[in-house]
């Protein structure tokens, strides 16, 4: 699952931070109220898909076969064919470099953690991150579920369930506790592998959370909530319904009927799937604002200055828009 219940212990901390006076956000985002309201109602355009062809190479090839005294049709066709063959020969290299770039970005993601504890392996700070291959998606999902945090969270969930005597089909005592822990771990493992690995590989959807990191607070908040239900397509880079995340949550609930003493049934499974998907929105909010919290409280920037550069670009765009608006206002009206 894209962002599941495992983040709920930190939601209270993030909510407390967001309830503080918004001076930090005001300093980093000098948007007026009208701009903030407009941004809150829009999801930013996804980056354009990566182009594996090499148009400059084609241009160089065609120019290399033309001269002031040599412009016959036959030589032009020869230049076009050589350009096409050059582009075709370079396509595997482009695909290879795209895969290598994704590998480098995955290595960086595997070092990301909230508060140094909660893994953020499925979060990228790059809006134009390289698309993942099917194998990379499955491997990244598996990596997140063999992290010590996943086992520790299952142990905590089992302890809470034991204390509250939830799921009465489990026995009370050591044997019941370990059964609860195993069931809790399987819930997370199944959901992550299906919702972040297998389904994204089949549907060509990117399972990662693409952090926005700039803009008004309301814009970023609603963006984080929305990404629990939408995701980017691998090839087009456009937003589309997140069938993988919802499907993984529902499939995980259905599989859990096999190892829970008291099965939940079809209706309850569907309801739980949508509930867990909605809960994932809180995890998205935490991931969106964690770097801001880290900079303010711990003076550490997980983005390594990326947020500051994006905010500077926003300020420059706003200044250019205001300048154009002033120029239009100062221009004399046309004579009728």
Account of the 3D structure:
The protein has 336 residues and is mostly helical. The chain is 64% helix and 4% strand. The chain has one domain (5-41, 120-327). It contains twelve helices and six strands. The strands form three sheets. It has a two-stranded antiparallel ribbon with strand order 1-2. The protein has a two-stranded parallel sheet with strand order 3-4. The protein starts with 7 loop residues before the first helix and ends in a 6-residue tail after the last helix.
Mean pLDDT: 76
Q: Oligomeric state of the chains?
A: single chain
Structural class: mainly alpha
Helix content: 55-70%
Which structural traits does this protein have?
two-stranded parallel sheet, mainly alpha, disordered N terminus, 336 residues, elongated, two-stranded antiparallel ribbon
